[in-house]
Design brief:
Blueprint: E1 4-5, E2 14-24, E3 30-40, E4 48-51, E5 57-63, E6 66-67, E7 73-76, E8 79-82, E9 88-97, E10 107-111, E11 114-118, E12 138-147, E13 153-156, E14 159-166, E15 170-181, E16 188-191, E17 194-201, E18 207-214, H1 223-240, E19 248-254, E20 261-262, E21 267-271, H2 284-299, E22 308-309, H3 315-333, H4 336-355, E23 367-368, H5 377-394, H6 396-410, E24 414-415, H7 417-428, H8 437-440, E25 446-453, E26 459-466, E27 481-488, E28 499-502, E29 505-508, E30 511-516, E31 520-526, E32 533-535, E33 545-548, H9 552-561, H10 565-584, H11 593-607, H12 613-619, H13 625-629, H14 637-654, H15 656-668, H16 676-692, H17 698-708, H18 712-724, H19 737-748, H20 752-763, H21 770-779, H22 788-801, H23 803-806, H24 812-824, H25 829-834, H26 847-862, H27 868-878
Parallel strand pairs: 2-12, 18-19, 19-21, 22-24, 25-33
Antiparallel strand pairs: 1-23, 2-3, 3-9, 4-8, 5-6, 5-9, 7-8, 10-11, 11-16, 12-15, 13-16, 14-15, 17-18, 20-21, 25-26, 26-31, 27-30, 27-32, 28-31, 29-30
Helix pairs in contact: 1-2, 2-3, 3-4, 3-5, 4-5, 5-6, 6-7, 9-10, 9-11, 10-11, 10-14, 12-16, 15-16, 16-18, 17-18, 18-19, 18-20, 19-20, 20-22, 24-26, 26-27
The structure holds diaminopropanoic acid and zinc ion.
């Protein structure tokens, strides 16, 4: 399989300004007639190359209406080349496909009897032969024909311009999209769907019909998604001045989907997971995720669709920017501080490990074998951080002007990350040459910050940056980045105003914005009180790993008093991290300095009035095992797990009475509504439950929490805890695993997304027999390797969220994952490839597990029929 390189990019030889498709749908024999208007762009291009997969059959090929003799084209497994074509010609291609046999879920396939498509990144080549690249923009005219009985709803991009009856119980619809688009944004849906509709009027007065299509049994859970869509449309007008550009916006929810959702022009196709939400079946987090993803796909209409990517190396151009936009949207809809903490957590648990492992790649990769493997946390989430840093550096006002300029300059074009940065440079009047390294260099930078006083009484902050080697990049240049910080006086009445007297930076409302460019930077401040505490990396202003000389005492102070939620959270997390690491080195929690500070902080939080329930829940949480383990060499994950468990048990026991009192108080204050206050209270009571569940009689609390639950959030909080309790340990309170899991299953049997949760809690269980239980779950009648959500519920959860079980000392966790990857691969290579990453973490582990993990990778590689998707990742993981 070929490696594709950014350096080899060449503009297309031919443009295809128009394409018309006639698609006659049939479960096993769908016929596609594509008519392409081809115009030579490059005079040296003698032949035209069309991508096309071996999964379809070529049934006809004609140039300007004349069939092409077989000697005039070359057909191979990846497509076809046509020689000696004129400068301008019409190419007609007939293909035949078998959607019912398509288990890969790319191109045209069936989900519960509904025809649907997924064309990003390279799915269009499974529908017809076409130069499948994002820099070819065409006007689409699509005629769909299907059985009226099985497919009453026929949808494609743009506006429906015609429809009617056909003989033989069939009907048709013609859709025309007035905007030129790359083929990855083409979509088609045909099925028996119900529809929920609303109308939105844009601020310039255009009425837009919004339709949300779902299976009849799901339609009752679509209201939140539709309301979220309207909020997103209004928000993009208010914040970026961007309006919707067509008269109709359709969203379709399907159960079988590789990604979360897809932004096809005016016809988004969604995984049901990011559409359906009702209080009885979805958690508060599910509600937030639906809102965020609905927003994300909508925001793509401008950042992705109107302005698209020149090539797939530029994926972050649309994804990083659109994630940034959806983060801002969610921040404005809910709590900005909490949203930031969620985003930081995601970055640290998924992106940082990726960036320090064998699959590390820059935000703009230089090469790939399988582009589907690059829909990663680096491209998406680190990409969003890069946008956020640019906003810090040039300022919000210039950034907003830059966004407007970007749209003005590049609307209708397929552009690059470089085009975006240049626009921001022009708008901000700043040189971002060094900043561009964020797109080219992989790896998470480390900052080491130390403070001192010089002879003249000035306070000096010394910041050293470094970035560890990553695959193909042994040595890094220093990054240009914003470091937001402030000085927190110990005494609140202290009115001194520190000034920056040396070093690049400025005083803003949120603190000092310092700019780092050199490996070592010195910032000199005047008028800093001797006992002031530095509040560093406020708002997590750059995606870095921070090391400081801030004392435990100062951390305790920051955790109690900082006005920046991230710094407060981080101070508490640092106390937690240090305590767990001490415990791993056999320091009892109560006798280590970090442990004592942590215990005191917990007691302090629980004895005071809890002003902000959601933030309190964050402050009472310990960092996860993956995150702590990332900083440990020759890691034994089971040892780390035991240490963290011991810390949690000690924290619970130390404050038993306070925890029980707070728990009962907050449990009783729960209300079933979706206000942010109600959500915050549910979050805190769930977190408190996780502590009281560790106490004597804990199972009783769990059972009671479950029985009193009004919402899925409460029910899940209890079920997660119940799943940790071994059967024999449940007391008379009925909080035992089996009772509650059985009850849950019976209640929600008809709701596949809820059954995913049922699978996931078991895969996440701390019970000693979890691995055996997962093997049994694989045989459960409701388990299937064909549904991506179900596979992820068990295997992504088990391998990413249950380190102690995955890293079982004899390697059986690795074996189970490897086996599953080999089973899923022939069905759906994209889903299989998504499961590989945890096996690439062997370098971090102690020697025995290193060997076992490598053996599991070797086993996958020795499998002859392995897909290029899985192969690319396994090979990189072994290097
Ligand atoms: N559907 C994916 C997303 O929106 C890929 N574009 O991020
Ligand atoms: Zn996206």
């Amino acid at each position: 399989n070929k490696t594709i390189r950014l350096a080899d990019y060449k503009p297309p030889g031919f443009s295809i300004p128009r394409i018309s498709l006639v698609i006659s749908l049939d479960r096993h024999e769908t016929r596609v007639k594509a008519t392409l208007d081809c115009v030579r762009q490059d005079v040296t291009a003698a032949s035209i190359r069309l991508d096309g997969s071996a999964h379809m059959r070529l049934a006809g090929l004609a140039v300007d209406g004349r069939p092409v003799a077989e000697s005039l084209y070359d057909l191979d497994v990846d497509g076809l080349s046509l020689k000696n074509v004129p400068d301008h010609f019409t190419l007609t291609i007939d293909t035949v496909l078998d959607p019912a046999a398509n288990t890969r879920l790319e191109g045209l396939y069936l989900s519960e009897g509904c025809f649907c498509t997924q064309c990003e990144a390279e799915g269009f080549r499974h529908i017809t032969f076409f130069p499948d690249r994002p820099d070819i923009l065409s006007l689409y005219d699509v005629r769909i024909e299907a059985s009226r009985e099985h497919c009453p709803v026929l949808l494609s991009n743009g506006n429906r311009v015609e429809s009617g009856m056909l003989p033989g119980g069939r009907h048709y619809a013609v859709w025309r999209d007035p905007f030129p688009k790359p083929c990855y944004l083409f979509a088609l849906v045909a099925g028996d769907l119900e529809c929920l509709s609303e109308r939105f009027v844009t601020r310039s007065g255009r009425p837009v019909d919004l339709h949300l299509y779902a299976k009849p049994h799901d339609i009752g859970q679509c209201g939140h998604a539709l309301a979220s869509l309207k909020r997103a449309m209004r928000w993009d007008e208010d914040v970026f001045g961007l309006e919707y550009d067509l008269d109709v916006y359709n969203i379709v929810a399907v159960s079988d989907f590789n990604m979360g959702a897809m932004e096809n022009k005016s016809l988004n196709i969604f995984n049901t997971k990011f559409v359906l939400a009702a209080a009885e079946t979805a958690t508060d987090r599910d509600f937030d995720n639906v809102e965020g993803v609905i927003g994300h796909e909508y925001f793509h209409n401008w950042t992705g669709n109107r302005i698209t990517c020149r090539d797939w190396f530029q994926l972050s151009l649309k994804e990083g920017l659109t994630v940034f936009r959806d983060q801002e949207f969610s921040s404005d809809m809910g709590s900005r501080a909490l949203k930031r903490l969620d985003d930081v957590r995601l970055l640290r648990t998924i992106q940082f490990p990726e960036d320090s492992g064998p699959l590390a790649h820059p935000v703009r990769p230089d090469s790939y074998v399988e582009i589907n493997n690059f829909y990663t946390a680096t491209v998406y989430n680190k990409g969003a951080e890069v946008i956020r840093m640019m906003r810090h550096l040039i300022g919000t006002e210039a950034f907003q002007a830059g966004m407007a300029l970007y749209i003005e300059r590049h609307d209708g074009q397929a552009v690059t990350c470089e085009d975006f940065v240049r626009t921001m440079e022009d708008a901000g009047g700043r040189d971002l040459t060094q900043f561009r390294l964020w797109y080219a260099q992989s790896g998470t930078p480390h900052l080491d910050i130390r403070r001192s006083r010089d002879e003249t009484g000035m306070t000096v902050l010394e910041v050293v940056q470094s970035c560890p080697p990553t695959p193909g990049q042994p040595v890094k240049e220093p990054f240009h980045m914003p470091l937001l910080m402030d000085w927190l006086p110990r005494n609140a009445s202290d009115r001194s105003a520190p000034r920056l007297v040396d070093g690049t930076g400025q005083r803003l409302e949120q603190g000092f914005l310092l700019e780092l460019r050199k490996p070592v930077e010195r910032f000199v401040f005047a008028d800093v009180p001797v006992d002031a505490v530095p509040s560093l990396l406020r708002g997590f202003s750059a995606p870095v790993i921070l090391k400081t000389d801030v004392s435990l005492d100062d951390l305790s102070f920051l955790a109690r008093h900082d006005d920046d939620a991230f710094v407060r959270f981080e101070a508490a997390q640092t106390l937690g991290r240090k305590t767990v690491l001490d415990r791993m080195h056999d320091v009892p929690v109560g006798s280590g300095e970090a442990g004592q500070a942590l215990l005191a902080f917990f007691t302090h939080l629980l004895s005071g009035p809890l002003e902000d329930a959601a933030l309190t829940a964050e402050l009472l949480s310990l960092p996860g095992e993956t995150e702590i383990g990332d900083a440990v060499d020759a890691l034994d994950p089971v040892r780390l797990h035991r240490a963290r468990e011991a810390v949690l048990n000690t924290l619970a026991a130390n404050d038993a009475e306070l925890l029980q009192a707070s728990y009962t108080e907050y449990r009783d204050r729960q209300t079933p509504d979706l206000s942010s206050e109600a959500k915050a209270i549910r979050r805190l009571s769930g977190l408190l439950l996780s502590y009281v569940a560790r106490l004597e009689g804990g199972a009783g609390y769990v059972g009671e929490h479950y029985r009193r639950a009004f919402t899925m959030t409460e029910r899940m909080a209890a079920l997660v805890e119940a799943a940790h309790i071994p059967d024999h340990a449940a007391d008379g309170g009925g909080g035992g695993t089996t009772d509650l899991l059985d009850d849950f299953y019976r209640r929600y049997e008809e709701y596949p997304l809820v059954i995913d949760k049922w699978f996931a809690v078991q895969a996440q269980s701390r019970r000693g027999d979890t691995l055996q239980r997962i093997c049994k779950l694989k045989e459960h009648p409701a388990f299937t390797l064909h549904n991506p959500n179900r596979v992820r519920a068990v295997f992504t959860t088990f391998s990413m969220a249950n380190p102690a079980c995955f890293h079982t000392g004899d390697g059986s966790g690795y074996e189970l994952l490897a086996e599953t990857i080999m089973e899923v691969d022939p069905i759906n290579p994209q889903v299989a490839a998504r499961l590989v990453a945890p096996l690439g973490r062997w370098r971090r582990l102690e020697p025995t597990r290193q060997k076992l993990m490598r053996a599991a990778l070797e086993r996958i590689l020795s499998c002859k029929s392995i897909s290029s998707d899985v192969k690319e990742l396994v090979q990189k993981s072994l290097q």
